[in-house]
């Protein structure tokens, strides 16, 4: 990893309005958790708030963080200032991912665990399991969305569609989608760590391998896209 | 001493040919890449800096292909036309990031040296987003110079730079060329190129139109036939009289009035036109050059 690229990427996340939006997402989730705790039964409350965190808040945070570190620079071509240096493009991709990953963990995965604990403080193991599951899913989301940012200028729109349609709507309607759903992989890992978490019956080994393969493939793809970045004028 | 070599390099995007079979050698010293907007200058610089693969032909630096070779940037500094979008960084942070990415032993000292070179020490603690166009250009140049590159490629470096800074930048480029660096900059303004570079490469519509010493190119440009529109009180008689002049190579009547005159020797034509008019009792109402645009000069070079 290159520390300079990591630092610049972190500044790109925090230095724009995205930083504020990123902080608002876990804040909203936490407020919701407090409301749920005050108004409903803990068991139901945990499932509802953590479900929202895993399937919506977490991918949204990952999407905003991952696209912030790469999307604008590719859009306006200013990434050429990073790429015209003797640093491997794969190292640049990994360093940018690292910055997005830290943001996703801090503002996406960690809040999922905290929310579970807030709603039901009597089950810290379950909260930890949800937190680890969210970390697994958040890692995949961050890598996937950074690859999306390297692939298309419309990464935010495509990422939102993926999150809302595939992970959200289709995932809840068609059981088969769980095999290819990032949130399901995270939930499966969480289920392995706590008997109180309903897993999705795809096998922990499958979930971990799928998450690892997609993460590594996305990072390799991002580096390869950066290797092929072309500078074009307005002419 | 580094040499950039393009050998029959072409680049096309779908059906559009941006660069067509260009061969040129860029040696130590300052080379001006001259051409109108849309001529393919940026594409050529992208090819030379390894940011574009040639569709055909080769682009090499000291014999090694530059495409997809990140090591090339140890000796190449690039100042793209693209604006810096790192508005959240100060100028100093931006240049220092470059120094760090180059893995320099003392990035702080290299940063200060580069900032001093482009006279940006004072505003270096302001955010890049607050800079004027000229200051951003200098910050970009400092970032490209921070590792003391043997090759410097600059895409339209004088765009938006005020006259004082322009003179400073020009002096800087000349000095770098004199120091033995291989400096290539693009411009669509003849006078800019004339003031900095002796070696000129002219590109028009993606083709290499001319190459050589500025004096030769300038002569080619000024010796071309020039078009004028002359409006007189009797266009037809004026056209007949002008046709007899050796300096005039073609004459045609304009449908809305006036005469199109193509002149091979402007000096003689300027002397003869009033005399011809007086000899034939014709009154000249208006004389206008009709193709003084840079594009027409470049088009002539291509056709010639």
Give your account of this protein's structure.
- The complex is a heterodimer of chains A (235) and B (304).
- Chain A is mainly α and 235 residues long.
- Chain A has one domain (3-227).
- Chain A has 9 helices and no strands.
- In chain A, helix 6 (124-151) runs parallel beside helix 9.
- The longest helix of chain A has 34 residues, at 42-75.
- Chain A starts with a helix and ends in an 8-residue tail after the last helix.
- Chain B is of the alpha/beta class.
- Chain B folds into 2 domains: 4-221, 3-Layer(aba) Sandwich (Rossmann fold); 223-303, Alpha-Beta Plaits (2-Layer Sandwich).
- Chain B has 10 helices and 14 strands.
- Chain B has helices spanning 41-48, 91-101, 107-117, 133-145, 163-178, 190-196, 214-222, 235-243, 266-279, 294-303, and strands at residues 4-13, 16-26, 29-34, 56-61, 64-65, 76-79, 151-154, 182-187, 199-204, 207-213, 226-232, 248-253, 259-263, 284-289.
- Chain B has a 6-stranded mixed sheet with strand order 6-7-8-3-9-10, with helices on both faces. In chain B, strands 2-1-4-5 form a 4-stranded antiparallel sheet, covered by helices on one side.
- In chain B, strand 12 (248-253) and strand 13 (259-263) form a beta hairpin.
- The radius of gyration of chain B is 24 Å and the shape is elongated.
- The model of chain B has no long low-confidence stretch (mean pLDDT 88).
- Classes of the chains: A mainly alpha (235), B alpha/beta (304).
- The interface between A and B is large, with 34 and 42 residues.
TL;DR?
By secondary structure, chain A is mainly α.
Supply the helix-strand structural class of chain B. alpha/beta
- Rounded mean pLDDT score of chain B: 88
Q: Calculate Rg of chain A over CA atoms.
A: 18 Å
Q: State the shape of chain A.
A: globular
Give the terminus-to-terminus CA distance of chain A.
36 Å
Biggest pleated sheet of chain B: 6 strands, mixed
**Tally of alpha and pi helices of chain B:** 10
Q: What proportion of the residues of chain B is helical, as a percent range?
A: 25-40%
The CATH level-2 architecture of the largest domain in chain B is identified as 3-Layer(aba) Sandwich
Helix content of chain A: over 70%
Spans of at least 5 consecutive residues with low confidence of chain B = none
Number of domains of chain A: 1
In total, the number of strands of chain B is 14
């Amino acid at each position: 990893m290159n520390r300079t690229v990591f630092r610049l990427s972190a500044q790109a996340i925090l230095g724009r309005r995205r930083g504020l939006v990123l902080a608002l997402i876990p804040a909203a989730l936490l407020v919701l958790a407090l409301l749920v705790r005050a108004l409903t039964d803990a068991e139901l409350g945990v499932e509802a708030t953590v479900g929202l965190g895993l399937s919506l808040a977490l991918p949204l945070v990952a999407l905003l963080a991952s696209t912030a570190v790469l999307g604008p620079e590719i859009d306006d071509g200013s990434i050429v200032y990073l790429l015209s240096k003797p640093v491997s493009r794969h190292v640049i991709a990994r360093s940018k991912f690292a910055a997005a990953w830290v943001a996703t963990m801090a503002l996406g995965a960690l809040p999922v665990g905290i929310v579970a604990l807030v709603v039901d403080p009597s089950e810290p193991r379950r909260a930890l399991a949800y937190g680890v599951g969210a970390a697994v899913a958040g890692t995949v989301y961050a890598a996937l969305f950074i690859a999306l940012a390297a692939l298309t200028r419309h990464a935010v729109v495509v990422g939102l569609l993926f999150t809302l349609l595939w992970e959200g709507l289709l995932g809840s309607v068609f059981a088969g989608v769980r095999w290819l759903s990032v949130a399901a992989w995270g939930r499966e890992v969480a289920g392995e760590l706590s008997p109180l978490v309903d897993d999705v019956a795809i096998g922990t080994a499958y979930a971990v391998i799928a998450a690892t393969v997609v993460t590594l493939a996305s990072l390799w793809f991002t580096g390869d896209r950066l290797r092929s970045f072309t500078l074009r004028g307005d002419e | 001493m580094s040499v950039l070599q393009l050998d029959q390099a072409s680049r096309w995007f779908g059906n559009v040919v941006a660069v067509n079979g260009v061969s040129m050698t860029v040696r130590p010293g300052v080379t001006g890449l001259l051409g109108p907007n849309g001529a393919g200058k940026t594409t050529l610089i992208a090819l030379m800096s390894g940011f574009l693969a040639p569709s055909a032909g080769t682009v090499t630096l000291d014999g090694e292909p530059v495409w997809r070779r990140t090591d090339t940037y140890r000796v190449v500094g690039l100042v793209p036309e693209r604006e810096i979008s790192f508005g959240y960084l100060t100028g100093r942070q931006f240049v220092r990031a470059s120094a760090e990415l180059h893995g320099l032993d003392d990035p702080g000292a290299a940063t200060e040296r580069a900032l001093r070179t482009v006279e940006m020490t004072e505003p270096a603690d302001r955010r890049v987003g607050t800079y004027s166009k000229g200051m951003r250009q200098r910050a970009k140049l400092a970032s490209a110079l921070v590792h003391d590159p043997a090759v410097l490629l600059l895409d339209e470096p004088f765009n938006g730079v005020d006259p004082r800074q322009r003179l400073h930048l020009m002096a800087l480029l000349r000095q770098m060329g004199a120091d033995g660096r291989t400096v290539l900059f693009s411009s669509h303004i003849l006078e800019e190129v004339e003031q900095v570079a002796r070696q000129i490469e002219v590109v028009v519509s993606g083709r290499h139109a001319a190459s050589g010493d500025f004096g030769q190119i300038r002569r080619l440009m000024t010796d071309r036939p020039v078009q004028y529109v002359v409006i007189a009180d009797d266009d037809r008689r004026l056209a007949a009289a002008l046709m007899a002049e050796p300096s005039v190579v073609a004459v045609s009547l304009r449908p809305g009035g006036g005469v199109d005159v193509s002149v091979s020797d402007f000096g003689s034509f300027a002397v003869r036109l009033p005399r011809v008019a007086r000899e034939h009792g014709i009154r000249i109402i208006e004389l206008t050059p009709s193709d003084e645009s840079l594009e027409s000069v470049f088009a002539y070079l291509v056709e010639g």
